[in-house]
Structure formats: C-alpha cells, structure tokens
Design brief:
By secondary structure, this protein is α/β, with parallel strands linked by helices. Helices cover 36% and strands 22% of the residues. The strands form two sheets. It has a seven-stranded mixed beta sheet with strand order 12-11-7-10-9-8-13. The protein has a six-stranded parallel beta sheet with strand order 3-2-1-4-5-6, sandwiched between helices. Strand 2 (29-35), helix 2 (41-49) and strand 3 (52-53) form a beta-alpha-beta unit. Helix 4 packs antiparallel against helix 11 (307-326). The relative contact order is 0.16.
Length: 338
C-alpha cells in the first residue's frame, strides 16, 4: 500500500511517448524513468517531458523503480514480462502477451509463480462507449443478443518496416476486438473463419500477412459476429462495435468524428474532422487504463486484465491466423489445446 509510486517506462516509440505523457500527469506517479534500447532516445524524450531517464537495467532496479510499463515491440514482451517477474515488480505491458501461445504461457507461468500484479493493455475496456454498450447489454435493454459487427480499420498505414515484426493483422489489430467481445458478452469465441487479401505495399505478401480481412465468428451460445480490418481505410480511422438484440441495438464509435458518409438524399453527414489514428481516437482510454494500473499498484487491488485473461484473445488471434493461412474455419479449442 502506497500513496505514490516510482514508475519505469521501457520503449519510447509512438505509443511509449503517449504513455509517458499520461504517466507524467498522474498524481500518484512520484517519479517517471524512461528507457529505450536506442541510444539517446529516452534522454531526448525525458528532457522534453521534464522526467527522468536511464538505461534498460535501471527500470528493472527495484531500488529505483516500483512498477514497470512495457511499450516495446511485440516480439520482446514475453522475455521482458519474465524479467519483471524475476524482479518481483508489478508490470503493465502492451498487448499481446507474446507472439505465440508457447511464449505467452511461459510468461504467464513466470508471472503467476512470482505472484506479482500484471496488467495487459486492452484499452477499449476503459472507453466510455464500450462501457455504456456493456451496461445496456447487461441490463437487458437490448434483449437477447443476436448479432455483433466489429471494425478496426486504420487510416494511416504503418511504416512497412513494422509489418514483419507486428505479429500479423489479427494479433496486432483485431486482437482488441477479440478481447472486447469476450469482455462485453462474457462469452468465449468458439469458431473463426478469416478471409484476407494482401494489397498495397508488397510487404504484406512477403510477410504472409493480410492488408484487409473479414471474419465470421460464433460465440458459445451460437451468437454470430463479424469483424472487418484494414490497413488502408482512406475515409479515416474507424473503430466500431455494433450490437443487435431482440429489443434494440447499440453502436460504439458512432460519434461526430466517425468516418461515415451517406449517399442518401437530404442526409447530413457527421461534422468531423474524422479520427486519423488510434492514439487520437483512444487517448482518454490509455490514460484511464494506466491510472487503473497505478491505483492497483498503490492500493493492492486486482488487475483489470491479467496476462492469463489476455491469453484468451491471443487464442482467437492465432485461430484467425490459421484460418487465413489454411482457408478453413478453425475451432478456437484447436489452438487452446495445442
């Protein structure tokens, strides 16, 4: 139990800078120490934000840091989580837990053996729209849920160098949809059928990845869902979830900046400007989830999303990858039992 804590942040890329800004402004963060493998990167950003910096070893030093935030590349997550476990340091890590199931289980075993607080960053759980949709569904306002439609579509195409190490579009983008669907409904996804195409930059074809994909999903009770994703959504950054029930519906993400443009006569489009990227769209959620982690560290309360919890979304992402690669529906238990 503590009123304030010292926090280390490892990984000063695009999302790391956003996290640094949010952490600096949290009243329960006593000191923020930035670190990055790129020489000078942490020092430069630390100077801009007026916070401390060090090397990678410094943020694992429990005499200097009380809790750790990991915002590095996906392929580093498992090893860094294990190192945090060995240091018995509470840790927040961006999704996913790891690139594959075996690495994720190795990290989870280390975290659970150490008995430390761990939180995997699925920020949509802290979004006002998703929270309200969950309330309406749980309260019965929507009736019996029959269909779900989800989108995660990027306006800004990532740098091509990111794609080979991203884990693929299902683990990088749609894993958020897989997590939020289970969180929203309380049900696991049972089957996945993914169709994708590799258009645009040749890096997608070379990486055996999709630039665009459409999925059909079934939940445990037979409820149907679809999910769309794209790296080339020119209209704007589009993240939505549509719930259709026997008594009504609810749409998350349909606000004044949603990139939706009607062709119907007399219809007035939403005023915009459209969202252009995920950092802009979900800035309040990132701050809220980091605050929740810091509160859990200070107050000894449970994690809002443990690594074991996040593994469920990774199972679905891996099932979608197999489905896309092999051109067939995949039962998620096939991945879970592997």
């Amino acid at each position: 139990m503590a009123e304030r804590v010292r926090v280390g942040l490892l990984g000063i890329g695009r999302i790391g800078i956003g996290h640094a800004q949010a952490l600096r402004d949290l009243p329960r963060v006593e000191e923020l120490v930035l670190a990055d493998v790129a020489p000078g990167r942490a020092a430069q950003v630390a100077a801009q934000l007026g916070v401390s910096h060090g090397d990678v070893d410094d943020v694992f030093d429990t005499s200097r840091v009380d809790a750790l935030i990991i915002a590095t590349g996906t392929d580093t997550h498992a090893d860094l989580l294990i190192r945090a476990a060995h240091a018995t340091m509470p840790v927040f890590c961006e999704k996913p837990v790891a690139m594959d199931i075996a690495e994720a289980r190795r990290a989870i075993e280390a975290l659970e053996t150490a008995g430390i607080l761990n939180h995997i960053g699925f920020h949509r759980r802290f979004d006002a729209g998703y929270l309200e949709a969950k309330r309406r569904l749980s309260s019965g306002e929507l009736g019996e849920l029959r269909r779900v439609h989800m989108l995660t579509c990027d306006m800004d195409t990532p740098d091509p160098s990111f794609i080979p190490t991203s884990g693929g579009i299902f683990r990088d983008c749609l894993i958020h949809d897989f997590d939020i669907l289970r969180w929203m409904t309380g049900q696991r996804i049972e089957t996945v059928y993914a169709l994708g195409t590799a258009k645009g930059d040749p890096v997608y074809q070379a990486s055996h990845d999709a630039s665009d994909a459409v999925l059909v999903l079934t939940l445990e009770d037979g409820t149907l869902g679809t999910a769309h994703t794209s790296r080339y959504n020119g209209a704007g950054h589009d993240v939505r979830m549509e719930l259709s029930g026997t008594r009504g519906g609810a749409i998350v993400g349909l606000d004044s900046r949603a990139p939706q443009f009607s062709t119907e006569p007399g219809h007035t489009d939403l005023p915009g400007p459209v969202w252009v990227n995920f950092l802009e769209r979900f800035e309040p959620c990132y701050a809220a989830e980091l605050a929740a982690f810091i509160d859990a560290v200070c107050d000894g309360t449970p994690s809002p999303c443990t690594a074991a919890d996040a593994l469920e979304a990774l199972y679905v992402a891996m099932a979608a990858t197999v489905s896309f690669t092999e051109g067939r529906p995949v039962h998620v238990d096939e991945i879970r039992r592997s």
